[in-house]
Amino acid sequence: xxxxxxxxxxxxxxxxxxxxxxxxxxxxxxxxxxxxxxxxxxxxxxxxxxxxxxxxxxxxxxxxxxxxxxxxxxxxxxxxxxxxxxxxxxxxxxxxxxxxxxxxxxxxxxxxxxxxxxxxxxxxxxxxxxxxxxxxxxxxxxxxxxxxxxxxxxxxxxxxxxxxxxxxxxxxxxxxxxxxxxxxxxxxxxxxxxxxxxxxxxxxxxxxxxxxxxxxxxxxxxxxxxxxxxxxxxxxxxxxxxxxxxxxxxxxxxxxxxxxxxxxxxxxxxxxxxxxxxxxxxxxxxxx
Amino acid sequence: xxxxxxxxxxxxxxxxxxxxxxxxxxxxxxxxxxxxxxxxxxxxxxxxxxxxxxxxxxxxxxxxxxxxxxxxxxxxxxxxxxxxxxxxxxxxxxxxxxxxxxxxxxxxxxxxxxxxxxxxxxxxxxxxxxxxxxxxxxxxxxxxxxxxxxxxxxxxxxxxxxxxxxxxxxxxxxxxxxxxxxxxxxxxxxxxxxxxxxxxxxxxxxxxxxxxxxxxxxxxxxxxxxxxxxxxxxxxxxxxxxxxxxxxxxxxxxxxxxxxxxxxxxxx
Amino acid sequence: xxxxxxxxxxxxxxxxxxxxxxxxxxxxxxxxxxxxxxxxxxxxxxxxxxxxxxxxxxxxxxxxxxxxxxxxxxxxxxxxxxxxxxxxxxxxxxxxxxxxxxxxxxxxxxxxxxxxxxxxxxxxxxxxxxxxxxxxxxxxxxxxxxxxxxxxxxxxxxxxxxxxxxxxxxxxxxxxxxxxxxxxxxxxxxxxxxxxxxxxxxxxxxxxxxxxxxxxxxxxxxxxxxxxxxxxxxxxxxxxxxxxxxxxxxxxxxxxxxxxxxxxxxxxxxxxxxxxxxxxxxxxxxxx
Lengths: 288, 268, 288
Known about the structure:
Chain A has helices at 46-53, 78-84, 101-111, 116-129, 146-158, 176-193, 204-208, 228-232, 235-240, 247-257, 269-284, and strands at 3-12, 20-30, 35-39, 61-66, 69-70, 85-88, 164-168, 196-201, 213-218, 221-226. Chain A is α/β, with parallel strands linked by helices.
C-alpha cells in the first residue's frame, strides 16, 4: 500500500491574518514496506505532513492518495483510512484513558466494530508484540513507567492492524536505555510484520541505525530525501538548517579529508568502528 | 478549530482606551451595561451607540475584528430573536400559520432585544479586547479590596481568575491534541445520537482531566518555588495608579449617564 | 552552598483509610557538597531519584532521614522557608506548567513581587534578567506564542529575578527539541560563567553535562559515581548498567580501545577523537 503526495499544500487559518503555510507543494511517494525516518525541527511541517497520511488534516490544495484513492473525496471513509494508517502521537498521556491496559488497547479495534473475540485476540497480540507481559494487562495505564506507557500506546494502534505505522517522536523524554529499547522494538515490529514504518525524530543518530530512507523537512518543504548515506553527504546543508549528521559520520568524513584511506560515509557506530580499526591496522602493518 | 475563537481575547494596540486604568474600564463597562436597561424606546440607543462607537474608535481595535468575535454568539442571538418573535403576544397578528402567530409587537421586541444583546456583548468584549487579563484581575482585586474586611479572599480569587485565563488557550490546544490522538484510533465524535456523542467524549475528558490535575500540581509547585505565599507582603510590578486621563474618563461616564437619563425622562 | 548529609527519603503510599500500603525508598544515604559558583550535573535514568533529590534542595520535599543545608540554613527550618527558596531557585521540566502570568515580563516579575521588592527595582531586575537570557524583545508577548526553548528561558529569567545564589534545573530540556535544548543549556552555562550563579543541572542527556565541573550519577536512589565529565565518561560499561550512555564519539573511542587502538579514555568531542586517532596511527611501533 503506497501513500502519494501530489503537490500538497496545507495552510492553517487560510484567508485570515493568522494564515500560515505548514506544507508547501510537497511531492512524496511512500512505498509498501519501507522504513522511513522523517526528520525536521519543530515547526518544519513534519507534524502536519503525517496528519495528512491518515486524514486528520486534508490538503488545502493538491492531493493525497492512499492505496490509489484520493482521501479528500467526499465518500472516502476516514475510519477505514485510520485503520490502515496508524498514527501514534508523541505523548501517550494524550490517549490513555481506560482503567486497564487491555481495555485501552481494545479501544481502537472496538471503534472498527470488530467481533469481541477478534478484539480480544488482536489486543493480546499487540501487547505481546510490544513486550508488555500478562502481569501488566490489568494494571492501570496511568501507573506504568514512561517507557511502558509508550509501548501500550503503540499497542493501541497496532491492534487496529494498520498497514502503515507512523510514530511521532516515540522516544521523547525517555532515558538512553529506554530510547534504545523503543527504537529496537519498532525495528523488530517492522522486520516481523513487514508493515511500512515512518519514524518522526529530531535525531539523525537515532534513525541512522534503522531506516531505509530519510526525509528531511524544513520550512514547510521536503528539502532532502534518500538513503541515510546519501542524505548525510549533505552535512553542510543539514547544518545550515540546524540539523547535524551523526558524530561518527563527521569523524570518518574529516579523517578521509585529512588523507586517511577510509570510507567517508560510515553512519553507525559499528560500521565506523570497523573502518577505523581496519585503517589503524593497515597503518601499523597488523594483519586484520 | 476551537483555537480560532477570538471572543474576548486581548488585542494588543497602543490606544487611549488600552492605557486607561482597568478600574475605569470595569466601572465604565458596568455603567454601560446598566445603561442598556434604563430605557424602553429606540431613542435610548442613540446615546449608547454614540458612546460605544466612540470607544471602539478610540480603542483602534478594527471593527472587523469585533464583528468576528460576535460570530461565536450568533446562535444565542438568533435563539433570542426567534423566542421573542414567537412568544410575544399582541392584538392583531401579522401572520398566522398553525399555532404560530406573529404580532408587530413581537417584531418590535425582537428588534429591541437583538440590538440590546448585540450592544451588550460588543461593549463587554471591548473591555477584554483592550485590557490584559492581568490588568483585569488587578483592577477587580483593587475594586473589591474593601471586601477583605469581611474576610473575602479577594487576592486569591483574583489570582485564580488570572491563572484560569492563562491556561484556557493551553487547555484548548491540549484538547485538540487529545481529540486527534483518539481519532487516530478510530474514535468518532460526529456520528450517532446525543447519548452516543456524550459517551464519545469520555476518551477525551479522562486524559484531559488527568493532565489538568498534573498541571495544577506542577503549577502549585512552580508558584511555591517562586516564593508565592498569598497576597500578604506582596509588591506590584505594575501598581494601579489613577492618572489625569482616568478622571476625565470617569467624567465622560457621568456625562453619558446623565444624557441617558435625559433621554429616558423626555423620550421614554 | 548546598550540602546534604545522609539524606534519605521514603515515598509512602497510603490507602483510603490512611494506613501505610507501601514504602519506597527514593533516596538513600546521599552526601553531596556543592560549592558556590560550580556547575554541577546530576545524571540518572528515569526513576533513579534525581528529581526527588532536586526537590529536597529547595525545601519542596523534606528528608525522611538526614539533613539538607542551603546557604547555611537547614531546609527543615520553616521560618526561613522563603530565604531558602529565594537562594535556591528551581526550573522544572514542562515549560507550560511554570509560567504563571499572561505576559512574559509580568511573569518574570512574579517572584520579586512575592518577595516584596519595590516596584522600581522589580522593573530593573526584570529588564536585566530578560536581557541575560536573551528574551528582552519578547517582554510584552504572551507565553503561549513562544517555543519550548524560549518558554524555558523565561522560566529561568523568572527564577533569576529573585537573585538566587543557586539555580536548580530539573530536566529542563526533556520536552524540548535539539534547538531548544541547546538554547537552554547555553543560557545556563552563561549564567554560571558571567553571573557566578551556582547551577545544578539534572538531566539524562549526556551531551549536556560535558561542560560541568562535577557530575554525580544516580541509580536507584543512590549516588553511584562522582567525578569530572571525563572521569565519568571513561566508565562506559558502568554507565550502561545505569541505563545511561555516552556521546557516540566516546563510545567509538571506547570500542576501539578495547580492540587495541591506543586511544585515551573519556574522549568527548569529534575533534579530540580525530587528533587522538591521528596520533595513534602516526606513533612509532606496534599496538600496545
